[in-house]
Amino acid sequence: MRLWTLTVIVLLALSSSLTTIFAEENELIIVSPHWDGIQKEFTRAFQEHYFQTQGKRITIRWRDIGGTSQIEKAIDALYAKNPNTCGIDLFWGGGIDPFENQKNKGHLAPYFLSEEIANSFPQALHGIPLQDSEGNYYATALSTFGIFENIPLAKLKKLPPVQQWEDLAQPEFKGLLSLVEPRKSGSAHMIYEMILQSYGWEKGWSILMRMAANAKSFSQSASISTKEVSLGNATHALSIDLNALALQGALGSDKVRYIYPQNQSLLIPDGIALFRGAPHLDAAQRFIDFVLSEKGQSLWVLPIGQRGGPVHYGITRIPILPSLQSKSTLLQQINPTFLSDPPAFLYDSPKASQRWTALNELMGRTLIDPHSELQQAWRQYLSLSPEEKAKSELFTPLLDEKEFEASIPLWKSNRLQAEKIGEQWRQKAIEKYQKKTD
Hints:
Structural class: alpha/beta
Helix content: 40-55%
Radius of gyration: 24 Å
CATH superfamily of the largest domain: Periplasmic binding protein-like II
Number of domains: 2
Shape: globular
CATH architecture of the largest domain: 3-Layer(aba) Sandwich
CATH topology of the largest domain: D-Maltodextrin-Binding Protein, domain 2
Number of helices: 20
Distance between the termini: 99 Å
Strand content: 5-15%
Largest sheet: 7 strands, mixed
CATH class of the largest domain: Alpha Beta
C-alpha cells in the first residue's frame, strides 16, 4: 500500500513537472513575405525578450505561402473555410494596401498599443497613414522601391545610365529586364501602382507596356527577380529596398547597386496586423509591442554585431520611430531630407487599395499572358521609321482610366462576370499586338 501510494505521488509530481514544462513552451504563427534574414533576426530577438519578460520560452512558426498577393488569396480561402479563424496569429509585411484589403473583409482584429508606445508612434507620413484609426494595423518600417542594377553587365551592354523608371522603357533594354508577376508579388504591384500614380495613367501605362516588352521574363517572386540580376541573367530589375540591399551587401556595391528614382518613388509603410480569431492572442499582441518598441525598431538600423542589433543578417530598413530614423544609413543614401520634404506626388493609398485586384488582372491579362505577342509587336515597332512610330498607337492604354475604374467593383463582388471582362481584355490586347505585326 505504501509502495502504491509512493508511486502515485511520484507520477503526480512528474505529471505536474511535465505540465509546467509544456505550459512554458508557447507558440506564435506568422505569415509574411519577409526574407529569411528578417524572420530569423526577429525570431531570435523576440524569443530572448519573451523569456526575459515572461519567464517562458516561445516557438515562432513562419508560414511560407509566397508573396503578398498569394498570402491574401490563402487567407481569404482559410476564412471562407472557417469564418472564426484562419489558424494564423499575425500578418506582417507587404506594404499597407493588403492590410486595408484584409480589414475591409473583416479578417483583422483591433489591438490598441500601450500608452508608452502610442505616444512615440507617428500617425502619418506625407498623408499616408502609419496606423489604422480603428487599431487594425500598424506600420513597422518604411520601405523604398527602386531599380536593381548589375553594374558590370550594364557596362558590357553599353546601356544608357538609369536613374528613373522611364529609363527602363528605352529600346536598348530589350530582353534585359527581369520583372515580377504582380498577381504573385505585393512589392511588384506597389511599384507598378507607383509608376501609374507618379506619371499619370496614360504616360504611366505606356512606360509599363514598354518595360513589359523589354522584359526577358516575369518571375513569380521579387527575390527571384533580383537574384536574376545578381547572377547576370538580366541587367536590371524593379525591387523593394530590402531585397536589393541584401544582395548589394553580399556582393559589393561595385558589382550591383540599388537606384532610388528621385521624385518618382515614395517611402511606403510596411504593416503588421492581428488576425481575427488568432489562436495565440497574448503572444501575438506582445510581438506587435516588441516590433514597435525601441528594442525591436533598433534591429532595422544597428549594424551586425552591435549590442541590440542583428547578429547574423544585416536587415537595413528605415524604422518607424522618429527617434531612430537619424541612424538609418538607407535614408542617408537615398535622401536625408525625405521625411521632412513634401514628396513630388501624393500617393493615393485608398485608391491603390480599391483597385489592387483589378490592376493585377489588367496587367496580367494584357502584358504578361500575351507577353510573346507584345514582344513581337515591340520588335516590329522598333523597325519602323520615326514618322511611322509617331503615328503608332501600340503604347496607348488599352483602357482609359474611367473605363478601368468601372470594372473594379466586379473583381470584388462578381468574379464570374469579372473573368469574362478579363478574357475580353486579353483578346483585345492580342488583337492590338497582332495588328501591329501583320
